[in-house]
Amino acid sequence: MPSVAWLHVAPVKGLALSARDEVELEPFGVAENRRFHLVDENGRLMNGKTLGALVGVRASWDAAADVLRLELPDGSIVEGEIELGAAVDTDFYGRPVSGRLVAGPWAEALSSLAGRGLRLVRPDDVGAGVDRGRGAMTLLSRSSLGELARHAGEGELDPRRFRMLIGIDGCRAHEEDEWLGRDVRVGDAVVRPLGQVGRCAVTTQDPDTGVPTVDTLRALRSYRPEGTERLPFGVFGSVVAPGRVRVGDAVELV
After folding, report:
1. Looking at the chain, which residues constitute the CATH 2.40.33.20 domain(s)?
2. pTM over 0.90, yes/no
3. Which residues face 246 on adjacent strands?
4. Percent of the chain, pLDDT > 70?
């Protein structure tokens, strides 16, 4: 039976992914996932495609205390309680996301690392910070990773390249595509995959350095037909029934 292989979240969109042994999957997704994002001085959304080096920054957010901690590549720590400032709207690929600027030391530290002015934003609505409003959860199988690695001429590919919430072991390559529109039990939760995730240049980058190292897009183009998205790899969807999901939990069609 398929099972959960990994759980990855990013408290700050564009920074390093953090592995979790378990998450609480809510109707909006996972509360700490993409809870903050970055914009430039003109209010434009910034991500790993333009600021690859920021994947070297590890973030953690204590929701109860509302404390954000960043560990920079040089080992220095920037930490403090969240203080919200002016209201801002961010364009997420044509979808407006309302939020508030975050006052404090984080923007200065990230701006210094990136070599350009950045501001930290917290969306008003939990779960609003996912790309293009693509649903509360994402799924990718390890077999799909293996198939893409074969076409890319690589021994293996780090799943963090693809920044997916839930990884699946024990199914066929791209079997997750067959789950579109069907309910899938994942641990204590039930999800419904709705569409494929189209891929961009972020997946070519090493997940520790942000430096392009593998032409994943060329490999996808060589064998993946267009589906609900161009260069599809993995699926996104909604949460039908909330619940706890743990690494090792069973995954099955309902």
Report:
1. 3-8+134-253
2. yes
3. 22
4. 99
Condensed to tens digits (0 to 9), the pLDDT of residues 39-64 reads 999 999 998 888 888 999 999 999 99
Q: What tokens were used for 200?
A: 């961009």
Reading the block at residue 139, the tokens are: 């799924």
Instruction: Say whether domain 3-8+134-253 belongs to CATH 2.40.33.20.
Output: yes
The predicted pLDDT at position 93 comes to 86
* Distance of alpha carbon 142 from alpha carbon 4, whole angstroms: 10
Which token pair is 178?
Answer: 């067959």
Residues found in the chain: 254
C-alpha to C-alpha distances, 103 to 13, 84, 120, 126, nearest whole angstrom: 17, 6, 8, 19
User: What's the rounded Cα separation, in Å, for the pair 104 and 83?
Assistant: 7
